[in-house]
L-fuconolactonase (Neorhizobium huautlense), 274 residues
Amino acid sequence: MLDSHQHFWKTDRGDYGWLTPSLGTIYRDFLPDDLRREMQKAGMTRTIVVQAAETEAETDFLLDLARETDFIAGVVGWLDLDSDDFETRLARYRDNPFFVGIRPMLQGLDDDAFILRPRVLQSLKAIAAADLPFDILTFSRHLPHVIRALEQTPGLRAVIDHISKPEIAAGKFEPWASHMRDIAAFPNVSCKISGMVTEAGAKWELEDFRRYTDHVASVFGADRLMFGSDWPVCLLAASYGEVANLARTLLSAHFAPAELERIFEQNAADFYGV
């Protein structure tokens, strides 16, 4: 099985602005040897490692890890989408076989409509032309802007990370559900079943997630969903194995074994070209 979304970091690298001591158990280094046993217990064989800092140094750090680590299938890195030399930077990284996608951290930016800036839209068109996957990290409030950006970048292959972080702890369903239905209308957009436990909190129960996973299962279907652990961020609310079992349980209500195989491996392998 292929985990489509996990992270590594070394705190002394100094570019993780969001990673502070207030986060407790995850405020330490997390590297491949920390994950290997957890993957084996959960039946995972490969991963896609995703950037957690908004620097090219982070992208380089992850690419170095990928060269040294047998289970890393690819890296979703960071490049400055609002830069005049984006296409030059993109061409440089495209030469690395482990560089399989790009993700800006839209959820943390001051400008909720960042994705609609003219230079950013031009960069998205360059990503689409290169047929490179694009990860979309958002809260529900960003989705109307994402929809407008997708309308202006036909051909962009994208995936919504963490089902766009609905307010699960508060039980809020709309307007997230309507926005996700609109997003799913774009045939080149997929959705990661990931990041849910941290939106529900440490005292979550399985039923807290059901209507959210029911909805994305309905609008995206078996061919455009992929499992991601969001480890080690998930450790704030659940273990690696608990996250994998949660996804299996919820999705088994909708999909047959062959479809689950696509969700837990083949869809991500095809999307990222690994």
In short: The mean pLDDT is 97. The chain has one domain: 2-272. The chain is about 40% helix and 10% strand.
